[in-house]
Amino acid sequence: MTTKTPAAGSRFDQQQDLQAIDALRGYAVLLVICMHVFIHVPTLAWPVKRLLLLGHTGVQLFFLVSAVTLLMSWSRDTGHAFGARARQFFVNRWFRIAPLYFLAIAFYWFFEQRTLDEFNLARLVGTLLFYNAWSPYLLPTIGGWMPAPGGWSISVEFMFYLVFPLLAMLVTTMRRAVLFVVLAYALMLAASVFGQGLYPEVGAEARDRFLFFWPPNQLVVFAIGFLLYRAVKSAAVQDWVRRSRLDAGGATALLVAALLAVQFYPGKGWELLVFLLPQHLLLTLLFAGWALFMLLKPRAAVAPGTVVEIGKMSFSIYLINFAALASVETLLSMLWPFGVTGILSVVYAAILFVLATFASYRVARFTYRYVERPCVRFGKALHGADRHAWLSIKTGDRREGL
Asked: For the chain, percent helix, then strand, then coil, each to nearest 5?
């Protein structure tokens, strides 16, 4: 991906821009895998453990990029009435997410060797209908069988889909995007206060985890994605980026420095500040600033082809990495001849990360080709949005939407 800056007023939805989108997705899923590596290496050296904990914000980066890509797709279809566009959107999103997700639920039942006494019908129904993020009893906050690892984020994503068409029709300017962020931020604060009185029986720690997962706490991330989209479409912002001495490389260096400062800052006693600006919101703002330069002034050095390729299959990799890490860790622990403390724990974790990422990628190539893409094309063919979609299922045409 060569360095480029769009001319003022140019459209930000051209094919070359998709490389930057895929790079952001790639970094998001790599962050998630980092977090899961930490879970598999509990004896990891403290500084590296603190660093890998940042991986949980990979989900927020996914949400941020999702809002941008959905708006890119929505803005291209201006020839249909709102009802038809919304119906087309819901069909596309369902076939984009549900088939592979449901397949993952079935796979993990057997992979984790679950038994019938562990089965929980309420959790299964909540997961299949994507409302599991609304209750701590349907999330991994109180233990027990979970139909699919990482399912909370997919539930939150689907909740956003339900309101996206309306938001896309209302939030059409920079000013409205700012208002959306303000309202979503107010909702986050109100939900944090109100939520403290919910589910007292599950305990404070489990309730706090639930309040992090549930949609009212995450909507502000999608709202910042709306603002980012309006920013990259703004001629004034494009002109400012073009004149800036900063590019994606410099923005990446600043992001890394900011992430390190946030994670290793030793200060305590800032409860009010943490409440007003929780870490997931602070890091989303940092990601948005970084993404602005990744999208408008990219550099090949910070968006290598490998990361772009991983980003294209990020959904498959997200679902697969849990099993890949468990399998690789089992094998690696049997072959590892050293201890797993101190510097050796860092080496062990690095090897686990590389091998699990590679394994996830290899399996994802299969699921992406034979599950994700055919389902996306079939969804398009169902509502006739693309007459070529049905033919592409038969001919293997590789074209697809976002």
From this structure: 75, 0, 25
State the maximum Cα–Cα separation within the chain, in Å, rounded to a whole number: 64
Rounded to an integer, what distance in angstroms lies between the CA atom of residue 100 and that of residue 398? 18
Helix-helix angle 121-128:82-111, to 10 degrees:
140
- Chain center to CA of 131: 18
d(CA 50, CA 31): 13
First to last CA, the chain: 19
Q: Give the pLDDT confidence of 239-272 residue by residue, as tens digits.
A: 999 999 999 999 999 999 999 888 887 655 566 6
Residue 164: closest CA among 231, 101, 222: 222
Amino acid at 4: K
CA 24 to chain centre: 10
Spatial distance between the Cα atoms of 294 and 20, rounded to a whole number of angstroms: 6
Find, among 378, 376, 374, the residue nearest to 366 by Cα: 374
DSSP annotation of 300 reads G
Closest CA to 133 of 18, 214, 229: 214
Question: pTM score, two decimals?
Answer: 0.90
The whole-angstrom separation of Cα 342 and Cα 44 is 7
Give 165-187 pLDDT, tens digit per residue.
999 999 999 999 999 999 999 99
Nearest to 372 by CA among 318, 326, 328, 333: 318
258 Cβ neighbours under 8 A, 6+ residues apart? 286
Residues 359-377: tens digit of each pLDDT: 999 999 999 999 999 999 9
